[in-house]
Amino acid sequence: MAEIVIAPVKSILSINDLQLAAAKKLPTNAREFYDSGSTDQITVLENTTAYRKYKLRPRVLRDVSKVDPSRHILGQKIDFPLCISPARIQAMAHPDGELATSRACARRNVHMGVSSFSNYSVEEVTGAARSIAPIVHVMQLYTMNDRAKEERIVRRAERAGCKAVFLTADSPVLGVRYNEHRNDFRTPRGLSFPMLEKTSEMIREETHDDGFVALNSDAHSWAREIPWLRSITKMEIWIKGVLTAEDVALAREYGCDGVIVSNHGGRQLDGTPATIDVLPECVKAAEGQIKVHIDGGIRSGVDIFKALALGAECCWVGRPAIWGLAVDGEAGVSKMLDILYDEFRRCMQLTGCNTIADIRKSCLGIAQPNGPLARL
Ligand SMILES: Cc1cc2nc3c(=O)[nH]c(=O)nc-3n(C[C@H](O)[C@H](O)[C@H](O)COP(=O)(O)O)c2cc1C
Ligand SMILES: O=C(O)C(=O)c1ccccc1
Q1: Could you write out the DSSP letters of every residue in 258-307?
Q2: Are 219 and 144 a contacting pair, CB within 8 Å?
Q3: Phi, psi of 346 (to 5 degrees)
Q4: Distance 86 CA to ligand 1 centre (A)
Q5: ipTM of this predicted structure
Q6: Ligand 1 atom at minimal distance to the Cα of residue 35
Q7: Predicted structure pTM score
Q8: Is residue 296 in contact with ligand 1, taking CB distance under 6 Å?
Q9: How many angstroms separate the CA atoms of 74 and 328, rounded?
Q10: Could you tell me the domains of the chain?
Q11: % the chain with pLDDT above 70
């Protein structure tokens, strides 16, 4: 078998390099926990590979000396349309966990999602960024069995300055992740889950899925969750985990502010499509009346460009931030954001786009097997 060559940190030039460097640092059970998808790993793989069939249609001989990759997202201008998705147990990748992620987001001026299963509290995470830059944090939420506890999370997030709730809608139950069974994965001892008001010792004892079943409810519904959330918070309400035009229509009907087209990074239901492939139907169903963001498999600035050309307002990444954390804490997450920023900016210039508004469907074609490039 060919030897796998792992890049030293100083020669990390791409997100792929970063993933390989993180793999070298993390113990097997942590690496598999972060990187895996559910069951046969098809959706997790396709989230990334699906981008390949979309090809760029560059326009040339344009003055791109004043390119501007910035965009207003969640009411605030960020350096480029890429934010960090909520992902749990970041302190297993680096002791500074979500604090490091928050600081790196502030340094690059992009927004951040905070998981309800974070190892630092929303107050600490928003506080970590405050002295650097006034970025937006959003609070990720599951529908919980204990509604009073869920309400406390929402109220704490609002008080800590979060602008939106991301209600994760794709997880009434947890997807099947073989690695967690095979490795008997449990959240490491000595960590805390301040939003859940629990320690890892408490969570380890609850159920063999890190307390997911003990804490979360599979009896969620549009009618039960959205009006209730609306009644307890002024924050924006976004639905995370939408993959169909039908659910975008429901999000509109229930007065939500936005949707994140997401299959949870392929960790929930294997066999769901790559998010980039359902983005167009979701954007169409939104009719400009509700914001449409996307996550899953975005690994380069070119991927961000393609998602924008297909109608996303903004992209989010999950695992790349974890890999950055594992490699070098805050500096590693900064490295990840800088790589994506540089790649995205350069892609804009090389396609002849000066502003985000210039990035449209006509910038892409779709590869046909054994045929000419088709227009979208
Ligand atoms: C290790 C890990 C933990 C995650 N934890 C959460 C979570 O607590 N809540 C949630 O809504 N999504 C969670 N996600 C999903 C991410 O928010 C996001 O949808 C996904 O990672 C995007 O795909 P990508 O990793 O390919 O960028 C998690 C993802 C990973 C990889
Ligand atoms: O691991 C995940 O993808 C995830 O979202 C999650 C969150 C809390 C408990 C278990 C899984």
Answers
A1: EEEE--GGGTS-BTBPPHHHHHHHHHHHHTTSSEEEEESS--SHHHHHHH
A2: no
A3: -65, -40
A4: 6
A5: 0.99
A6: 31
A7: 0.97
A8: yes
A9: 29
A10: 9-366 (3.20.20.70)
A11: 97
